[in-house]
Each structure stands twice: as structure tokens, then as C-alpha cells.
Amino acid sequence: MSQAASPAAPPLDPDATAANASVSAPATTTQSLEDRYGRGKKRRVDRRFAWIAGVTLVIAGVAFLAFSGWQNANQIKAQDIVFKKTGEFSGTMKFEVTAPANTPVACVVEALNTSKASVGWSVVELPVSDKRITTVNAPVHTVGPATAAYAKECWIVEPSK
To answer: From the CA atom positions of the chain, what is the Rg in Å?
Structure first.
């Protein structure tokens, strides 16, 4: 038994028919197909917008990197070195402070117990120095036994008026 060749079924998708007819379609159909598939005016506008947005982001990033480094000159940093117990309710904290030269600075030193609870603190005013890095030995008095201490925060002391 031989099977007869059946005729090709017509496409069910009307868009496929329109695509096949676009070969001999008028200019309006060709224009709508270009708009639909991205070769028209809309795509040029989108591409232009993407370039403008990209260049703007690059310029903003370079500006941020250039200007953010200038803030480091006035930053104050404290680096803990060692805590030594000098008695049951006292100790000495040694730390380094990096600050602008000839600037009055104060720091808070906090002592902690084995549960990391605060058992004492003190505010230490550093003497004005012409050096940028200063090593400080700060006494800390506690209300209980301390096992650790750290320089919690440092700031520039504003002159009183």
C-alpha cells in the first residue's frame, strides 16, 4: 500500500502568513515589521539612551573615586595594641590613634568582662601632637574584673568658645 502525499496544511499562525507575505508587502507592512523586530527608529533611541546612561555612570564613578579619597585626611582611627590588668578593678589600655597633626583628640576606652559586658570606661583626651600617629596608655577603672578593653571611639575635640 502506498500512501498518497497529502497536501501541506495551511499555517495556523496568522503572523507566519504575514511574514511570508512581507516579501511582496507594501512599505507600511515592512515598517511595522522593522518596528516589531528592532530595526526601526525605536531601537536607535534605546541604544542612544543606553550610551548616555553608561557614560553618565562612568563619569559619576570616576568623580566618586576622585573625591572620596580626600575625606581620609580628616579621619580618626584607633588601633588597639594591648590591655593589661593592673588590679582587680583597674587596667591600662595601650592603643594607637591616627589623626591629623596638631589636632586635639579624645577617645573612649571601654573595659569588658568574660561575658563581653561593659564593666568600665573612661574618656581620654590626647595631648596635641605634631605627629599623625600617637601611642596612648589610658587607665581604665572598672566595677568588676575586666578581661579585655578596646578604644571604642575617637573624635576631634572642638575648642570651647
So the answer is: 37
